[in-house]
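Forum > Structural Biology > Help requests

Title: Can anyone predict the 3D structure of Lipoprotein?

Hi all, first post here. I have the sequence for Lipoprotein but no way to get a structure on my laptop. I'd be grateful if someone could post the structure tokens.
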Amino acid sequence: MSRPVALLLLMFLAGCGAMTRGVRPGTGQEKLRAIAASTPVMLGGTLPAAPVAPPPPMPLRGISGEGLGNGIPRAVLHGTHFGDIHGWVQGCYAPKATVAREKPVRTPPAPLPAPEAGSDRDKESLGRLYATYTKFNPKSSRHYSGRTSMVVDLRKPLRPQAEQAVATRDSNHHTDESGEPQSPGFRQAVLDEFDVGTALNYANRYSDIAYWRVRGREQQLIDFFGGAQSDTREPYRTENVNRGVAKDNPLGRLFHDAASKKWGQIHPYTGD
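Reply #1:
Sure, ran it for you. Structure tokens for Lipoprotein below:
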């Protein structure tokens, strides 16, 4: 066997020698020179009768876990392209590391913060509703006229809220004021008219024209059904003991005119 062929065979078996990852550099070059020196060369074009088999390759000293298995280089274990001898010798076809790509974790958008109680956003949707109502007593055949107010949600239908305000006021009759109907024979209170203002605090009610209208409407109702008992003699014609607006109230005429403009006059003004 010629020297080049033997050298190529040794390179194939050695698998890059000290160039392989995980193999500690040894005396591979000196051993290759010794093997090459002992290999017979063709003289006169004739081969020796029996070719001398090359000695077995020196065992490679590998590091545990670095890609050697039973002395086989990493390049062989990982599928080296044998057709590219030069590339095999130079790079040994180190395996490519596979990096797992993590999928990006999508964080859901943070929920928007809820508005605080009493915030400007809440206040914009609220208002104060003022309403008038009547109660009838079938035993005496007389009416009682009154008014009430309640903070309401302006985004919701107003009439059901007005009816609720009257029902709430009706349930509190006989307990919080004097001069109200005392007979248990009164029927349920009935909504008359209502209007809405912006005074969430009842102390600011005089800033609402709606309050002025309801005050005038209440007095007109009392006068329409026969007048307060304080204005008439017996037999009384209404269940209202006192007027809704005192005769000498300086705002009485303004209350009356505001109600008449909104709902029409149902009785002439009776104040001084």
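Residues 121-263 form one domain. The chain has two domains: 3-91, 121-263.
Shout if anything looks off.
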